[in-house]
Amino acid sequence: MYDIFYASMIILILTVFLCLYRVLAGPGVENRLIAVNTIGTKTIVLLVLIGFIYERPIFLDIAIIYAMINFIATIAIAKYLKRGCLC
Amino acid sequence: MPVLTIINTLSLAFIIIGLFFMVVGAVGLVRLPDFYTRAHASGKCDTLGEGMMLIGFMLYEGFSLIAVKLLLLVLFIFISSPTAVHALVNAAHARGVVPWKKGDERR
Questions:
Q1: Can you give the pTM of this predicted structure?
Q2: ipTM of the prediction greater than 0.90, yes or no
């Protein structure tokens, strides 16, 4: 089972590099933002996988906090893009 | 113990299907021609893939506090990730990003 965990970690890191191409090359700010949001979603799964591999359940709490911070950051940036200010 | 083997196989199937969906979402993010189509790929494939992978980890773990935390994470992701993508698409539409039609060049 741990081999599957390691293999899925490696595949997820490769998909993070695919999204990083869109961050570097995407025209406009919206493409970059949606790629960053996707990378954040993949990072949550990577944190859970690290917690399972090294048998430290504290990483699950870090994953929950990371999901909340990712959501709030994306909402705030979308609001700033739409209105021009954070009001 | 056949029950443990069945549950491990089931969690393995969930993890592999979720991994497939996440790879498909990343490839769509690179390959598709427009912002809206990329939002389509990212918002749906990523949410489903992450949910299925975390459900696979829940089945592997069994009934404990870790499974409850993973269930909370799955519920939060299923609510929050489409909301974030919808907010981004709404902001892009308000800024005047025109949708891609067939025959246009890639943007």
A1: 0.87
A2: no
